[in-house]
Write a structure and sequence with these properties.
The protein is an alpha/beta fold. It contains nine helices and eight strands.
């Protein structure tokens, strides 16, 4: 809730759902069975997130506000997860079709770290890593940006982590399109897209079409 650029954005409505509701709701579209846990901070301002999770019947884990890597590792350990999909509460339009493919690839190739970033619009991709990779990052990643961003120790040290990158279908490749929510302008775009489409569950192809100059 303490975002400096867009305070309270996690529970701010986009269409008829709060941003966090979009993130959680999209998980119901996954083919893979997955346990959703919201990992927020122990700060009082995030009591609202914990209350939302209780009402929605979603587990909520609370940990360090600044040391997000520690929060992730503690959460994964507490729930006994072997593989962790990381979805941030900036992104209401996660592509669950590609996320299913990402999970398939990660498990098939026995990767430590697998992601789908850099091809599709910013905000629709995802990443998955093993508990062992997360634990090593927590143990060895001591720089401030490692603690703040969870995955950067893995990204910076590919020789330590077997890494896979999922190739996106051609119709979904548009890396310059911004579909994350970090500013007031981002929120306005996301809200307009959902209201224009009349549904929260827009596909990546539909989002690209709505954002095209001729739309």
């Amino acid at each position: 809730m303490g975002s400096t650029r867009l305070p309270g954005k996690v529970l701010r409505p986009i269409g008829h759902l709060p941003l966090l509701g979009h993130v959680l709701g999209r998980l119901s579209l996954l083919r893979h069975a997955a346990t959703a846990v919201v990992a927020t901070s122990t700060l009082g301002q995030d009591d609202l997130i914990a209350s939302y999770c209780r009402a929605a019947g979603v587990p909520c884990f609370r940990g360090s506000e600044g040391n997000v890597l520690e929060r992730y590792f503690a959460c994964a350990s507490a729930f006994g997860f072997r593989h962790i999909v990381r979805l941030t509460a900036d992104n209401p339009f996660t592509d669950t079709e590609e996320l299913d493919r990402l999970i398939d690839m990660h498990l098939r190739e026995r990767n430590a770290f697998t992601h789908s970033f850099g091809q599709m619009p910013l905000g629709v991709g995802a990443e998955i890593f093993t508990l062992e990779a997360l634990e090593r990052s927590h143990r060895e990643g001591h720089a401030a940006h490692h603690r703040e961003h969870v995955d950067e120790y893995m990204i910076e040290n590919p020789e330590l982590f077997q890494t896979g990158i999922l190739q996106a279908p051609p119709a979904k490749i548009m890396p310059d399109l911004r579909l994350t929510v970090d500013t007031e302008d981002d929120w306005s775009v996301a809200d307009r897209l959902v209201r224009a489409a009349g549904t929260e569950w827009l596909t990546t192809e539909h989002l690209i079409a709505l954002c095209s100059p001729s739309a």
